[in-house]
Amino acid sequence: MRKLEQSWPAEAAARYRARGYWRGETFTRVLRDRARERPDHVAVVGGGARWSFGELEARAERLARGFLARGLEPGDRVIVQLPNIPEFLTVVFALFRARLIPVFALPAHRLVEIAHFARTAQARGYVVAERHEGFDYRTLAQELLGEVPDIAHVVVVGDAGDFTGLEGLPQGGDIDLPEDADPSDVAFLQISGGSTGLSKLIPRTHDDYIYSFRASAEICKLTPSSVYLAALPVAHNFPMSSPGVFGALYAGSRVVLSPSPSPEAAFPLIERERVTITGLVPPLALLWLQAAPTTRHDLSSLEVLQVGGAKFLPESARRVKPVLGCTLQQVFGMAEGLVNYTRLDDPEEIIVSTQGRPISGDDEVLILDDAGQPVPEGEAGHLLTRGPYTIRAYHNNDGANARAFTPDGFYRTGDVVKRMPGGYLVVQGRAGDHINRAGEKISAEEIEDHLLAHPAVFDAAVVSLPDDYLGERSCAFIIPQGEKPKAAALKLFMRKRGLADFKVPDQIVFIEAFETTAVGKVSRKELRAGLRRRFLEKT
Ligand code: J2J
């Protein structure tokens, strides 16, 4: 079996075990335990389905045999690109049961991203839904096979066309399922926000990830009578694990999957299923705050609204309780690990003005100035962290590892934060050049590279601009080559290259030249900062 690496130094691992964070649990055991304890409790609701814990486990087992009978082998990586449908959970638990390694992609990803994940993870399988929001993923699968021939198996949920459907997988009744994973094994690859260049893959182990969502479920006070609504795309780390669908299932709660985070889709589900907790990114929280006062749906079951992924401003945060009648919880997390929460019983001022404090007493947090020295409490600095669920390395990426981790294993988050009394963090901004567009992280560098491939683009610099709705939007400054192209044509060019829609620049500004200094060219970072500053001064 091809094993993936993620390891903590022996001393740290021993400490995390001794302190009860890593309890030797695996995803398969967690589901088995819940299925034994409450086989008939409804675990998953979505589409037309209502599956109990018992049914979820039985379906996952059947599918696990199906994947292996189909020819996938334990250790193989399988890209999972599914929207919020109940099959997401059966597929993922089936992959765990078969010792296959899911690689999570978002429904918004297109050929460029999927091919990159497939190559980097050396994936052999790809599981997609037939279509979602008008997009046909079978076409994408076809294109992927052209680019990455190592993908030997495509499985489609829904009408499979020329591919194999989930229901059409071989029954595999005579296939022996492998022994369960070791808890310290890598369970799956998660996708990084991609602050520089292409997204990196994040190997998470059973031990570390299960700790993060078990502790999150405790912080969020989930019980078997809680109902968690997954409104954001469930493959994202926030709705997956903070506490997300996994934390909810761990606690024996019910998971409800909304096909979209819009009030139109989510409000009726909240009413029908008596949802108690859900999570949103700030722009969606604003939309909900706008829609709630006039909705005909009863939202009174909602006890907690979590907001995270990007900064939620105090003015907006203050409105949550009066408008929605529930407790706000700010969540500042990252797929690499560290997650901070305001606690449900924190004073209102902490809840509205901070992004919370870490999950674990063993989350080590450093806040350093540019010279690497700790800053005093209340002053802004670079956030570095290590702990029982923060990775020590990306998958197969020595260059990124050398940049992102210190020699003693701290992860450089790229975020600039202040530490307040009690260890609460306030996010001030970030050091890197990515754009946080409504919680979707976009690397300026990656977009510039795509723009430069257009024959009419001489040079390009992509920056973030403040945006009332998105928080930040992307703006590409372009020096044309020859005849100036139309902005719409450039955007279409980006889409046709197979780039996720959210990465297509929101705004394009043509300029004649970039600034250089007397000494020569300025760095890309200074260039982007200068362009942003001058643009904002003019408007
Ligand atoms: C400001 N910036 C924030 C916040 C994340 C829970 C919640 C979110 C994520 C996530 C996650 C922020 N205020 N409240 O994985 O489990 C920015 C920071 C951070 C980056 C990570 C989770 N919450 N951010 O958003 O991997 O810049 O994870 O480093 O997508 O989002 O992005 P991502």
TrEMBL record:
Enzyme Commission number(s) of this protein: 2.7.7.58
Query: Any one Gene Ontology biological process term?
Result: siderophore biosynthetic process
The record's listing under Gene3D superfamilies reads: 3.30.300.30, 3.40.50.980, Luciferase, Domain 3 (2.30.38.10)
Q: Name one GO molecular function term.
A: 2,3-dihydroxybenzoate--[aryl-carrier protein] ligase
The cross-references to PROSITE patterns, in alphabetical order and at most eight, read: AMP_BINDING
Q: Where is the AMP-dependent synthetase/ligase domain?
A: 32-395
Q: This protein's superkingdom? A: Bacteria
* InterPro entries (UniProt xref): AMP-bd_C, AMP-bd_C_sf, AMP-binding_CS, AMP-dep_synth/lig_dom, ATP-dep_AMP-bd_enzyme, DHB_AMP_lig
Q: Keywords in UniProt for this one?
A: Ligase, Nucleotidyltransferase, Transferase
- Which pathway does the UniProt entry assign to this protein? Siderophore biosynthesis
The AMP-binding enzyme C-terminal domain extends over: 446-521
Task: Extract the NCBIfam families matched here.
Answer: DHB_AMP_lig
* UniProt-recorded name of the protein: 2,3-dihydroxybenzoate-AMP ligase
* The organism of origin for this protein: Ancylobacter tetraedralis
